[in-house]
Amino acid sequence: xxxxxxxxxxxxxxxxAQNYSLINGEVVKSNNDTIQVQIRVVTNLFNDNLxxxxxxxxxxxxxxNNTIEFLKPKNIKSLSFKNQCNETxxxxxxxxxxxxxxxxxxxxxxxxxxxxxxxGTAKPIYYIIGEDGIEHKVGAFNSVKNKLxxxxxxxxxxxxxxxxxxxxxxxxxxxLEKYDDI
Length: 182
Description:
This protein has helices spanning 2-16, 144-151, 159-164, 169-181; strands at residues 19-29, 34-43, 60-64, 67-71, 76-82, 88-93, 98-104, 108-116, 121-129, 135-138. By secondary structure, it is α+β, with helices and mostly antiparallel strands. Strand 3 (60-64) and strand 4 (67-71) form a beta hairpin. It is globular. The chain starts with a helix and ends with a helix.
């Protein structure tokens, strides 16, 4: 029994341990100043290249010229960095939190993670922002297909594409790319 207790404590400690790394990135402040910085991020305990999105859920810690700065989302317009696959990831501020910009066309597609710190989970919430700037929250009780039909109403030829689409992130991006191409 004592061995099981010790193993449980060690396992719990490993699971809750956080690893921090610095990544090169760019921050555009709300006053449009663009700065090249190192951003402190939480990384996977076993793979430093995997950035945890919780790094962008509160204040953003940046280092520039050996000075540390704590930036609140309300003071940031956007931040971007290259991930482990050398793809640029961009986060934009809604004034309260940072959202990942998944697609940036005439219609924008954002993802925000809602963190439940007490139980250690994150639930994604998606937003589709139409050309008119109106934001449509996509959740469990409102259909992605209906929201896409609403924001692409000026292109009725996309309705069949939306209907047959599985509505994964890739599928939504596919519809939005077609909207931009028409």
